[in-house]
Amino acid sequence: MVGVKLIGILDYESGHVCCEEHEKYDAVAFLEFFKKVLTQYPKGKIVIILDNAKVHHAKLIQLLLEKLKNRLELMFLYPYSPGLNLIEGL
Q1: Domain total for the chain?
Q2: CATH number for the domain including 74?
Q3: Which residues pair with 22 in a beta bridge?
Q4: 72/61 Cα distance (integer angstroms)
C-alpha cells in the first residue's frame, strides 16, 4: 500500500480547511502549497503554526520567508507536541 502525504492548513477564524494530497512531501511541495495559501489569502499578514518537521526548516522555505517577511510568519510548536496542532485532529 502506498502512503499519501497531506499538506493542510486550518483557518482558526473561519474554520476553513485547505488540504492537498501529494505523493512526496518535500520542500518543493511545501513551497507550492505556500504559494496557493498566499493566493487564497491575498491581503494581510498570515501566521502559520507548524510542527518541527525537517521540511519546514528547508533553505527553500527560508528564502520565501525572507522575501515575504512582512506578510508571512511561521511559528513552531514545541518538539513532539502534535496535540497542540489543531489540524492533526482532522
Answers
A1: 1
A2: 3.30.420.10
A3: 5
A4: 11
pTM: 0.76
Report the C-alpha gap between 14 and 25 in whole angstroms. 26
Judged by DSSP in three states, 15 sits in coil
CA-wise closest residue to 36 among 49, 51, 22, 19: 19
User: What domain range includes position 24?
Assistant: 5-89
Q: How far apart are CA 80 and CA 51, in angstroms?
A: 8
Count CB-CB contacts under 10 A for residue 70: 7
Query: What is the maximum alpha-carbon separation in the chain?
Result: 42
| Tens digit of each residue's pLDDT (9 = 90 or more) over 1-57 | 467 788 888 888 888 888 888 888 899 999 999 899 999 999 999 988 888 889 889
Residue 50, classed as helix, strand or coil, is strand
How far is the C-alpha of 76 from the C-alpha of 36, rounded, in Å? 20
Q: How far apart are CA 81 and CA 29, in angstroms?
A: 23
